[in-house]
Amino acid sequence: MIETLRPAxxxxxxxxxxxxxxxxxxxxNSSLSITSLSSAMNLCISLPLxxxxxxxxxxxxxxxxxxxxxxxxxxxxxxEAREPAEEAFRIAPWISVVVGxxxxxxxQAGEKDRAEKLIETLQASKPGGMMMYHLVCxxxxxxxxxYERAIEQRQPMAAMSACTGxxxxxxxxxxxxxxxxxxxxxxxx
Length: 189
Hints:
single chain, 2 domains, 189 residues, globular, mainly alpha
């Protein structure tokens, strides 16, 4: 599906192409692939703002937009993160991480009403989305509460996310050792 890439650095191009292709292949289960999400979370922290130079032309999936939004967010560019977060949501409103991230961006931008409406769609069954929302809003204890639910539900993304840069605030919490034990991870992971 992805035929051409814009000129880019070879390592980033290969990684993003692989993530995007695996994301297309994993659409049958309507969730982000574990490898794609973990790689994207770690990659976003260090990518430059001209991130679209690295991405495939095919933007029909939510993942390239989410990667761009995460990159802007990690670089403290909240206003710039909004448009790609909105586009990821337009493409895949059923993916809880996308919903939670957009809701967090909206809340941080002062649009609490719209953020709350999005969060209402997640409350009952989507700990991943709620955890993402609280992480974006820097609400570590609430994020940990939802992370613990994801672990209890044995959601694969819980263990996969444990080592990502995005989850650093959770690992810094005094509550982290309990979560690590729940996943049979080292408490210092």
